[in-house]
Amino acid sequence: MKNRGILIVLSGPSGTGKDSILRELKNLRSDFEISVSCTTRKPRVGEIDGKDYYFLTKDEFKQKVDAGDMLEWATFCGNYYGTPKHELEDRLDAGLNIILEIEVNGAEQVIRNSSEAVSIFVLPPSVRVLKERLKNRGLDSEEAIEMRTKEAEREIALAENYDYVVVNDDLKECASDISKIIDSEKLRIIHRKNIIKEVLKNERVVSR
Ligand code: ADP
Questions:
Q1: Residues with beta carbon inside 6 Å of ligand 1?
Q2: Which of 22, 50, 77, 175 is most deeply packed, by most CB within 10 A?
Q3: Across-strand partners of 10?
Q4: How close is the Cα of 135 to the center of ligand 1, in Å?
């Protein structure tokens, strides 16, 4: 039997660098998958169903919520977003490590609902730097940036509920910290149950 994979929740304020960190982490290791969320918003040009999101109708989404098949979900700009439980379970059982990149409210739900999730909060070096990055990203109006910064201050106060906190100052260092967390978590007994049996059976086990 395969050892169960690790479920990692990566969260932090908008603009703190979660997308950038995951891109960098892909250069460091390939033993993880990024969870695909469900949404009721319409696909944007170039987005692929099952890769960027699972695109659902509102009825389909509500049915999944009623059936208890969403690990977490939220509404944003009139649309629903959520993490489907079923697929996640199958992949973890198959031994895959999964990263959920989600906003802080969704992460709070996962931390509450899942005893196995390893939670990582990404802090910006300072709120001022975060504001600068949001400006440079060029996706938001000045008003939206003010709103996001205020929201970030509220969210940063919740970082103490997480297992780990990383600071995204230097992107490469931050991705490397997350890679170290994954390495440490892989050594936990819950992911190494088989190893005891193998050693006792004299099947020589390698350290990793
Ligand atoms: P999120 O996914 O958390 O909303 P992004 O990955 O979109 O954040 O990053 C927000 C902006 O900050 C982007 O323009 C990105 O290029 C920039 N950025 C991310 N990490 C760093 C970093 N370590 N140093 C400088 N700029 C960064």
A1: 14-20, 133, 136-137, 168, 170-171
A2: 175
A3: 101, 120
A4: 11
The two three-digit tokens of residue 55, written as one number: 């695109």
List of residues 6+ apart from 157 with CB closer than 8 A: none
pTM of the model: 0.91
> What is the CA angle 155-156-162, rounded to 5?
95
- What confidence tens digit (pLDDT) does each residue in 84-132 have? 998 899 999 999 999 999 999 999 999 998 999 999 999 999 999 999 9
